Amino acid sequence: MTSEATSRCTARGATGIIQSRRWREPARAGATNIARSPIIASQHGLPEGSASTRSPGTGTRLRGSANALVASVHSKLHMTKMQMTKRILKALSHPAVEILAHPTGRQRRKRTPIAVDLDTVFHAAKEYDVALELNAQPQRLNLSDVQVYRARELGVRLAIDTDARSVDQLRFMQYGIDQARRGWLEREHVLNALSWVQLQQWLKRRRS
After folding, report:
1. What is the pLDDT of residues 152-167, one digit of tens each?
2. What contacts 57, CB < 8 A, 6 or more positions away?
3. Is the peptide bond preceding residue 100 cis, with omega within 30 degrees of 0?
4. DSSP-derived pairing of the beta strands 14-23 and 39-47
5. Which of 3, 73, 171, 206 is deepest in the core (most CB within 10 A)?
6. Is the full-model pTM beyond 0.70?
7. Cα dist. 182→45, 112, 138, 175, 178 in Å?
8. Exposure b/e, 109-134, CB count within 10 A at least 16 = b
């Protein structure tokens, strides 16, 4: 995962933001570095308290032609710890969600982390087999190395993402890799270190 699409649709009052991301199959047979593959993303709100979001076929409607749905908090950032944790757990339980992006919401010198029980979130991510993003954008750089280690300890898979807004920002991937190493991650812990075939199998795991 390397970039975010320019077109977005954000719903106010949403429980979280759902991003649909489509990977293209690597041109070179057997290529394993899917981090270089183009991504197309769109965003949809997951309405709070909406039972219909769990109905059959919802995942297909949200995902559209994309391969993966990414949930992230972009609104109502000042909820209590209990409220925010419950909000994120609800998103993680959604059968269409594959990745939780920038779990702490932190932005250096701009925004403090959201109040959330990360350990509870990590356990839920493990239970629902949802990957956590390690956002390599220098302004974000979350999860932290300690949080990465804890996620690894619980058996949660992570996805390293540059959150790039331009081609030049793809170089941020190195920051994410360095953070992953400080958190003792190895290849088997990282979603975008999987082969293309392994990634496809992982994406299908909750859709059968």
Report:
1. 999 999 999 988 889 9
2. none
3. no
4. antiparallel
5. 73
6. yes
7. 34, 22, 15, 11, 6
8. eeeeebbbbbeebbebbbebebbbbb
